[in-house]
Amino acid sequence: MMHSLLIFLGLGVAAMTLAAILWSIAFPARRIWPPKRYTTLTPFLVWIPTFTLFGVLILLGVWGWGDLAIPSWVRFGVGLPLILIGNIVVWMEVSHFGVPQTGGAKGTLRTEGMYRYSRNPQYMADIGIVGGWMILSAALWAMVVGLAGIAVLIAVPFSEEPWLKDQYGSAFEQYASRVGRFF
Q: What is the pTM of this model?
């Protein structure tokens, strides 16, 4: 029962988030992400779904630990480093932006640090964390929900980049011409 509830919750959060992102791509004038205004409610709307999805992934991975036949050397030799490196990149960049700007508040255009190599290093690092957990846990339902989460992380830059262009104009366009969206 709890297992099914977590799967439903994880897939539901991913689906609702993806729907909001796709809406924002299709209708940028009425976008949901990035928020038009950063208010006291914004962090709750951003971080509750984010941490819910990560929490669901962790629990599904623990409960299904080792269900799939992935060799231990792959699980620990690939999965664990992806999780560690992903966390280092994410938290290093969050420390430069601060939590509000990471969560959608207006700020400055960052082109240094890991942003020299990718316009979206935090999303790439999050993909690494999720993918690493999928591999490390070798749990079927963590894989399913994790893939849904990765789909969201791939889609998000397509709703953010038009906003960045509006915010930073030619500075963003020059940056985007030098640095790839993902790599």
A: 0.93
Above pLDDT 90, what percent of the chain?
A: 80
> Which tens digits make up the pLDDT trace of 58-106?
999 999 999 999 999 999 999 999 999 999 999 999 888 877 777 777 8
Q: Dig out the tokens for 118 from the structure.
A: 């990718």
**60 neighbors 141 (Cβ within 8 angstroms):** yes
**Please, which residues have CB within 8 angstroms of residue 169's CB and are 6 or more apart in sequence?**
none
Distance CA 176, CA 183 (A): 11
Buried b (16+ CB within 10 A) or exposed e, 113-124: ebbeebbbbbbb
**CA 103 to CA 93: how far, in whole Å?**
12
Q: How far is CA 21 from CA 7, 81, 159, 174, in A?
A: 21, 29, 6, 25
